[in-house]
Amino acid sequence: MAVGTETQLAPRRQAVARTHTRRRRFPLGPWAAVVGFGLFAFAPVYWLLITSITPDSLVYRYPVTFFPESVTFDNYRSVFTDPEIFGWLANSVIVSVITAVLSVVTSMYMGYSISKFRYRGRRTLLYFVLSSQMLPSALLLVTLYGVFSTFGLLNTYFVLIISFTTFTLPLCVWMLKGFFDNLPDDIIEASKIDGASNWRTLHAIVLPLAAPGLVASGLFAFMRGWNDFIFALTLTGPERQTLPPALVNRYIGEAATDWPELMAASVLVALPVAVAFVALQRHLVGGITAGAVKG
Amino acid sequence: MTMTNKVRPQRRDASGSTAHEPQRSARRISDLRFAWLLILPGVAMLLAVVLYPLVRSLSSAFFSESLLYPGREFVGLANIQAALGDDFLRLLWQTGIFTVGATVLPFVVGLGVALALNARLPGRSILRGAFLFPWLLPAVVVSFLWMWIFDASYGALNGLLEQLSLIDEPRAWLFDTATARGALIVAKSWNAFPWIMVMLLAALQTVPEDLHEAASLDGAGKVRRFWTVTWPHISGVAGIIILLEFIWNFQHFDLIFVMTGGGPAQTTQTLATALYDSAFRSYDLGQAGAIGILWMIVLLILVVVYVRFSERKEAN
Q1: Quick one: which of A163, A169, A168, A161 has its CA closest to A113?
Q2: Which of B19, B170, B178, B51 is nearest to A129 (CA)?
Q3: A31, A75, A79, A139: which to substitute to probe chain B, counting the most B Cβ within 10 Å?
Q4: What are the DSSP calls for A157-199, one per residue?
Q5: In terms of CB atoms within 10 Å, which end of chain B has fewer, N or C?
Q6: Predicted pLDDT at A294
Q7: What pLDDT sits at residue A292?
Q8: What is the pLDDT of residues B196-241, one digit of tens each?
């Protein structure tokens, strides 16, 4: 993003820099800030990882040791060989992947319709979609619990998938509408003049061009399903529960918490999102900031 | 919105002569149908999973209703009166402190990191990605991690403060009425600042470099340059960020529920956790609906104030 401006202004800036040698060669201030804020950001992550590979005997010791003398992978072993945790992991994968797919499909259709067609109520629809994310989920849960219970749907994948998909719509529709807005109408017109139907134009011409947006919104939807706590806690029992509420029920109780094992389980929960993020970072950051800077 | 609405392609054909009329009207109808078909699944889901539950939950406020048995009985404003009497101001105050704290602190940190990373540092895009990490973590992982850091016996915070000789004996940060709320705000801020940082960084990159050069040629210092050049360019985005963070924190549930469960002595209870407790611990849907209504009113006031404020700012 900045590259464009920097190259445009480069000659002028160099000229200014040459005449006024105020610019320090080493940006000391920014680096000091990066290190300071970095400590706040990464010390907890260090602690998460270190605790997960520290033997119990060293974790529960006083005073606290920040650099453990020995390392163990027992905590990871007990997490990975626990059939219950594996079941919750499978639930999380199933729910989040289906949520991501369903959410991308639904929101790309909605985003395309809102972006490229003009009809009355379109704007109202967009505001309705956007404002729905301001609603407290606890409030919606009260009724959803009753409705799903009436239809005998509690403790199914369906209730989680349909809820998560709906709650990701605002953001995904917003992002994809932005992508479609940037797509020149000429492409669509040309395809129609060639005799392609609306349906074919959308699928064969438009969607491939919007692929980066689809990826970003898919990742958001996946994260929504993967990270959710309150819906999975309330609407499902142990058999269909995803990892977040299941881990809370499992580890945070009256009895003393097994912190090293819980930290290892936390790494397991965080890992898929982190890996996906590293792979798709550029699309994701673009997606996060898309609406803000333009709007 | 009715089916009689007209659809027109975004760009009208220049050659809109009468000879093409029959064909164009056929195109119009199919465009309208198509546009409507596309939004149908999403709208159906929003109606079923958002709008209906919202209306139904809010209407519960006027009935005596429980999750334990079917049926509802109209009770008028009794639930709302009960909710207002029932420590409502204290709940609102506690929600307000958490919301403001968990908005201001990560904003300051996010702005600091964004400004630092906006300098031409080598490896800045890698740093930006790395700084996003706390934001990626699921809320329960953030909760687990900070519960462990704040642990009364073996927590890293106690260990650190003791080694720095800032405290004499370990403290139970999350079980102390004086520190529990602050601890929650720190955890929430750690989780939230990366998103703010990325948004602000994107905004900062729209600030024209030559304005900075011009200001510094005029002898403006760093602080002055920030307020006269940088801030006007990013204040729009900053306003959106603060409004969104405010709304999200106002309804925040996960961290509070997992880390303190509203305790100790109800000091970290907010409207969100109180609503959840009414519905799923006391099974009192009427009470939950009443809290919901009061909540919507407060939120609406806040949004109206914000809109008024930003309109006036724009007018100036």
Answers
A1: A169
A2: B51
A3: A139
A4: HHHHHHHHHHHHHHHHHHHHHHHHHTS-HHHHHHHHHTT--HH
A5: C
A6: 46
A7: 52
A8: 999 999 899 888 888 888 888 888 888 888 998 999 999 989 988 9
Element (H, E) at B139: helix B139-149
B281 in Cβ contact with B213 (< 8 Å): no
Nearest to A175 by CA among A216, A222, A133: A216
Q: In chain A, which segments carry CATH 1.10.3720.10?
A: 81-292
In whole angstroms, what is the distance from residue A46 CA to residue A193 CA?
59
Q: Which residues touch A55 (CB under 8 Å, ≥6 apart)?
A: A68, A70, A71, A72, A74, A260
User: Higher confidence at residue A68 or residue A5?
Assistant: A68
Does any CB of chain A come closer than 8 Å to the CB of residue B139?
A: yes
Model pTM score:
0.87
Nearest to B63 by CA among A101, A142, A253, A230: A142
A173 with B50: Cβ contact below 8 A: no
Q: Say if the Cβ atoms of A118 and B295 lie within 8 Å.
A: no
- Give me the CATH topology for the region A81-292: MetI-like fold (1.10.3720)
Residues of B in contact with A120 (CB under 8 A): 1, 5-6
Chain B residues in contact with A51 by the CB 8 A cut-off are 148
Express each pLDDT in B87-139 by its tens digit.
899 999 999 999 999 999 999 999 999 999 988 888 888 888 899 999 999 99
| Window B:174-213, CB contacts with A under 8 Å | 190, 193-195, 198-199, 202-203, 205-206, 208-210, 213
Expressed in angstroms, the distance from the first to the final Cα of chain B is 36
